[in-house]
Amino acid sequence: MNQAPMNQFKFDEQGLLPAVVQDWLDGTVLMLGYMNQEAIAETLATKTVHFWSRSRKKLWEKGETSGHKLHVKELFIDCDRDTILVKAQPVGPTCHTGERACFFSRLDEQGRIGEPTTQDAFGGILEGVLRTIQNRRANPQAGSYTTKLFEGGHDKILKKVAEEAGEVLLASKGGKKEEIVYEVADLFFHTLIVLGYHDMALQEIYQELGKRFGKSGRIPAKIVYQDEHTLAFDDINPQAPVHTLVIPKRHVESVQDLGEADQALLARLLLTCTRIAKDKGLSEPGFRLIGNTGRDGGQTVFHLHFHVMGGRHMHWPPG
């Protein structure tokens, strides 16, 4: 691996840069540390966050003793080239206190540290609204719209979600952006009511989206093969030592959407699967080829894809 040119960074007189670490899913600021040239190089090489300890005067990997590592998703540098932003996937709590992030104490208007701890710095506006919803459920308030929804029960909440979804459809059909914004905001709010009813966190939704789509709609995985019609990449959540996905470049929701005119595409997909198996050394021991269709079939990403899996003995039935 080529080393990063360190002369592009503006280190301080101690040879350090502050590094802000964010949760890649919801933007929560997890911690602040300091990196020198060695820490940057190790972070780039290992894809886990390394810092320079100013007190111990040594390089250290976050989570090297606790196991609560930070897996790097993306790195950014600020406009002055003197501060690094790390977008990372945390394993367990980041703070040594056991809190999810290190910023859990609020300063009041006089600048004094408040008690008790708060999660208000975590996430963004959606998390803030959900916290208010959860508070209204736990502590009903007279005249509160949210309280009235909870008092009306589950069916009333679901009816409102259906109504607001319909309003979004009508606003979109009308084409007026201000109406679309207003109705989508209403739908978001009532969907958060559903999460509050089930005592669920937005982090659970973010994790599911992260598993499905990676970052910014791009595939955050290693592309191992592509041609004019197909693309193959290693699964970001592998279920076997070898686990590669093969997809068509043209959108097809599932095999049920293939027609007579798609025979050549289906043949190309299967040939790509066998090529991947050969390249991965699976031809001789064998491999499993899986194509999930529909929700009961286990399909969670609604773009046609085949799983090429191997490197271990496959059991039957699969589940």
Characterize the structure shown.
The protein is an alpha+beta fold. It has three domains: 11-90, Ubiquitin-like (UB roll) (Roll); 125-208, Orthogonal Bundle (Helix Hairpins); 223-310, HIT-like (HIT family, subunit A, 2-Layer Sandwich). Helix content is 32%, strand content 19%. It is built from seven helices and eleven strands. It has helices at 37-46, 125-138, 145-152, 154-174, 177-197, 202-213, 263-279; strands at 17-23, 29-35, 50-53, 58-61, 70-77, 84-90, 223-226, 230-234, 242-248, 288-290, 306-310. A five-stranded antiparallel sheet has the order 7-8-9-11-10, covered by helices on one side. A four-stranded mixed sheet has the order 2-1-6-5, covered by helices on one side. A two-stranded antiparallel sheet has the order 3-4. Strand 8 and strand 9 form a beta hairpin. Helix 2 crosses helix 5 (177-197). The longest helix has 21 residues, at 154-174. The model has no long low-confidence stretch (mean pLDDT 90).
Summarize the structure.
This protein has helices at residues 37-46, 125-138, 145-152, 154-174, 177-197, 202-213, 263-279, and strands spanning 17-23, 29-35, 50-53, 58-61, 70-77, 84-90, 223-226, 230-234, 242-248, 288-290, 306-310.
**What Rg, in angstroms, do the CA atoms define?**
24 Å
How many alpha or pi helices? 7
Strand content: 15-25%
Main sheet: strand order: 7-8-9-11-10
Topology:
Layout: E1 17-23, E2 29-35, H1 37-46, E3 50-53, E4 58-61, E5 70-77, E6 84-90, H2 125-138, H3 145-152, H4 154-174, H5 177-197, H6 202-213, E7 223-226, E8 230-234, E9 242-248, H7 263-279, E10 288-290, E11 306-310
Parallel strand pairs: 1-6
Antiparallel strand pairs: 1-2, 3-4, 5-6, 7-8, 8-9, 9-11, 10-11
